[in-house]
Amino acid sequence: MNKPLILVVEDDSSVKNLITTTLKAHDYRHLTAPNGKAAILEASSHNPDIVLLDLGLPDIDGVDVIKKIRTWSNMPIIVISARSEDTDKIDALDAGADDYLTKPFSVEELLARLRVTQRRIAMMESESSAGAAVFSNGQLRIDYAAGCAYLNEQELHLTPIEYKLLCILSQNVGKVLTHTYITQKIWGHSWENDIASLRVFMATLRKKIETTPESPQYIQTHIGVGYRMLRVE
Q1: Inter-axis angle of helices 62-69 and 36-46, to 10 degrees?
Q2: Does the keyword Membrane belong to this entry (predicted)?
Q3: CA dist 44 to 60, 63, 71, 175, 182, Å?
Q4: Structure confidence at residue 153 as a pLDDT band (50, 70, 90)
Q5: How far apart are the two ends of the chain, measured CA to CA in Å?
Q6: Rounded to the nearest 10 degrees, how much is the dihedral formed by the CA atoms of 185, 188, 192, 193?
Q7: Are 161 and 102 contained in the same domain?
Q8: Positive/negative CA dihedral, 7, 78, 230, 107
Q9: Cys-Cys link to 213, which of 70, 100, 144, 206 (CB 3.0-4.6 A)?
């Protein structure tokens, strides 16, 4: 099986060389693009499996590149940027990015993010071929058709919003979901009160699915940004 084809969008030659050298060393196939216009052309021409995207490009802002790609494709996009403010992360994730890695970064973390993304791709393909009727992650199981969730084969007694929240997270395993994205999915809008309510529902959901809520196994908090369901081996 071929390794995924990765498009590296980076105008800084030193960072680009670090990334491409790392990819070569781990047998990943890759393409490169020095700016936003070239990135859009390469993405549409070669349909890469994963995009590694810098935001500070010389011609088009990376967030606009994400929005453009999202008009025709759901290919995973991992942002690699020196912008570290929560607002920058939220803008990129809301535009459709799947993950956000802040410069400077370690090679090990980059490879870990790629592995997470690959697992999510494989899981989505598997669920698609199986009709996505049942979701399994560690000891957690969700029967979408029946509208029930189980932990260690014991049915969880969830409120409708807790169940909906669990489904949204499970359908995006490995992907950081912003507060805005989640609240719009649950309530159809996103106000400050919705985010406060979301935190309450998340706390009650965690009490039901996490053995130790203070050290969560399934749901990871990204402070100021949102939440991510982790893939449990």
Answers
A1: 20
A2: no
A3: 16, 17, 11, 23, 29
A4: very high
A5: 22
A6: -100
A7: no
A8: positive
A9: 206
Contact by Cβ (8 Å): 178, 94:
yes
Q: Is 144 helix (H, G, I), strand (E, B) or coil?
A: coil
Mean pLDDT for 9-14 is 95
DSSP 27-56: T-EEEEESSHHHHHHHHHHH--SEEEE-S-
Under 8 Å between Cβ of 21 and 10? no
- Residue 189: per-residue pLDDT: 72
Q: What angle do CA 138, 141, 142 make, to 5 degrees?
A: 145
Angle between helices 13-25 and 107-129 in degrees, nearest 10: 60
What was the pLDDT predicted at 128?
Answer: 55
Token couple for 88: 């920058």
Radius of gyration of the chain from its Cα atoms, rounded to whole angstroms: 18
Count of CB atoms situated within 10 Å of the CB of 117? 22
pLDDT at position 214 over 90? no
Domain containing 32 equals 5-119
Same domain, 38 and 113: yes
Q: Which residue has the tokens 């084969």?
A: 153
Looking at residue 126, what is its pLDDT? Answer: 65
Residue 126, domain member (yes or no): no
| Average pLDDT estimate for 7-29 | 95
Q: At residue 90, does pLDDT exceed 60?
A: yes
Based on the fold, state whether residues 157 and 112 are members of the same structural domain.
no
